[in-house]
Structure formats: C-alpha cells, structure tokens
Fold this protein.
Amino acid sequence: MKVSATTPNIQSVSDLAQIVEAVLDAVGARRERLALALPDLAITTAVFPSRGRAPERELKKELASILPYALVEARCDFWRGRHDEVLAAAIREMVALQYEQIVEAVECRLAWVDAVSLSRIPSWSTRPARKGELDVCLQLYSGHYCLTVFREGELVDARTKLRTAGDAELVCREVLRVPALHDSADSDAQDSIDSVSLFGADAACVAAALEDSSRVRAIRIETDDEDRHLESSIETLLARGSP
Amino acid sequence: MKSGIYLGPPLGGARGLGKFLVLFGVIGTLFHLGIYLGQVREFEAVRSDVERRDGAVANAYSLLVEVELAESERAVLARLRALSESGAPTSILMTELLQLVANALPDEVALVGLSFDPSTSPPSLLVEALAQREQDVTALVRRMAASSRVAATRLLGERSAPDGMLSVRLRVDLNTVRAP
C-alpha cells in the first residue's frame, strides 16, 4: 500500500482482500456492515469559516480550488459546525473505489466511510469553550500528524502534515505557530494556547517539548498508543450507524 | 446536525427515483392548473375590457407614465443615497486596503491574488500568497492582525507546492469603524 490523494493506493486489491478476509475470520466478525476509516493522507481537507448556510454547490466550488485533481473526479462531503464553520473533505473517486472493492470482496456492505482523523472532530466540537479560548487537538502517527484548532469552540483549522517518526520538535514548532495564525485580534492572551490534547505515537515526547515552551496552559495525553487511537476512530464511526 | 463526513458511495438511488416520479406528477398537475387559471384570467380580462371600452386605453397610458416616473425617481434617490454614504464612517477606502496589504507583506512573500468581499459580515479580504518559509506566513498573519483596520485573521489554507513553496490563503475580516 502507498497512501496518496492522487494515485491508486493499493497495489493488489485481491491480495489485500485476502488479508482482510483472514483477519475477519480470525476475530470472528459478523459479515454485515463494515465502517471504513480511510487513511488521512488520501483525503484533502479544508475549513471554511462562516459558510454554514452556503449551498453545497458554492462549497464545492471553493473546495475545487484546492483539490490536486478535477472536481468531477472527487467524492466530497461537508460537515457544518455549530458556529457556521464548514469542514470539507474530498477523496479521489478512483482511490475510494479501491477501498470499497475490498469491502465487496469480503462480502460485506459499507456502513459509514470517513477519514481516520476527521471522524472525531464533530464530537470534539461539542465541548464547551470560554471566550477567547484556543484549543489544539493533535493526532500523531508515525509518518504524519493531524492538527485541529478550535477557537472559542469553533473549528478554525484542520490540516494533515507529514513528519518522520520521533521528530517531536517539528510538530511542537507547528503547534506553537497556532496562536499567531488563529488568535482573535481582541484576545488578551496573545501567543498562548489554552489546551493541547495529544493522541497517538510520540504523544509523550511532543507533550514534553510543549511543556518546555511554557506557552501551553494545559496538556492532555488521552492515549499514547497508535493502535488504540485507530480503534477509537473506528468505534466513533460504528456508533454513527447507517449513513 | 449531521454526524460527520461521509465519503462513501452516493446514497438513496431508489429513493431518488421515487422522489423524481412524485415530483414529475406534481409538476404535471401544476402545469395543467396553470393553463386552466390562465384561460380563466384571460376570459375575465376580455369581459372587463368590453365593459369599460371608453377611456380604458387613456387610463392605462396615464398609469404607465406614473410608474415610469416613480421608477426613475427611485433610481435618482438610490444614487444620491449611495453618494452620501460614500464618506460615512462605516465606508472603507480601497486605497487604504491596498496600503494595508502592502505594509503587511513580508519581503519573502509574493502576493498572487487579492479580493474584497463586501457581502460578508464584517466585510473581508481574501489574500492569496506564496511564501518560502512557514515563518514568513506567520509574519504576514501577525502584521495583518496588528492593523487597527483588521478585526480578525483566518488562515484558510497553507499547502506545500511541489517546488517547496507554501501556497497561502488568508481571510482578513475588516473593522468597518476605525479604532481610535
């Protein structure tokens, strides 16, 4: 497998289908519906502020400007937040079809289909927030990380970046840029972040680096294990039921 | 509220067909109803026209002149209002906005696009730029945010191009009343 947003991800769909089949047999899973958590690097995301009431046609036009392929080749969806913000996500049709072929090959039906790191954003957005509060959620994986920023409970940024495993400093530097990029002009607490929640690989290393900077008021490590983190994402998708 | 992003195959093909058939039936009924009402209205119009005969044409003509005058008056008033509001404290001078962008751009950042949207509340600028380093983007955002004309900045996108440059989209919400 080579995860990409533009080119086919799976070298041999039939080989991977056999592996999935074996895993489903091994865990004794019922063959009904499978939730599909797509890899983050196969998805293109964007956050559009104050566009909660915009028609989907307009949002698609905006999304098209950042897609690395034509909009007609994309399968996209929009999630509208409580503060009129819109989270947009797109996957190239040919990439999505490869993953779906595996589900068909193991004789299951598709349930919810979302990206691993995007799946938890809707539940995070329901957390209460104070005026001027700036919160960062960081989902760390060995080869990439996803940074999600909430200002006063409103989703203002969601981005996926590449990294090498163990490089905590690069991630820390990106987190510390957040106040400059997303603090409101009338905020009292310039340059500081109210809370950073860390999930996945190297979370403890990144937390230590952020503590040293003394610009983060609270750091939470909810799990330090990548597998457990993926599990949580899949649990979130399964809890949604039918799309 | 929707549970989240759904990137699976499109849903509800059969339901879509059912909706289409119902819609088709409703449109057909409305079409025939429209034709019927049109014919009734036409009949009524002919009858009243015959009843009024004398003076009907003259009355209609004078009414048309009145409508035209009223419309032209409205246009003049709208133009006068627009002129009088151009110097109001809530107006924004385009030259001032260009100056704001010119002052905020660091040397290492190239401006590739700038658009002004008066329809958002507050009005906003969309700045599209190319930068070499992340620090340059941070500097651009900081300088923008430091202006008294700026209410808030939002980094809408920051993506690495194949040549290593960072492509940036920044929304700048503007204060319509200048801070003292």
Observations:
- The first strand of chain B starts at residue 109 and ends at 117.
- Chain B touches chain A through 29 residues (CB under 8 Å).
- Chain B has four helices and four strands.
- Chain B has two domains: 14-84, 94-174.
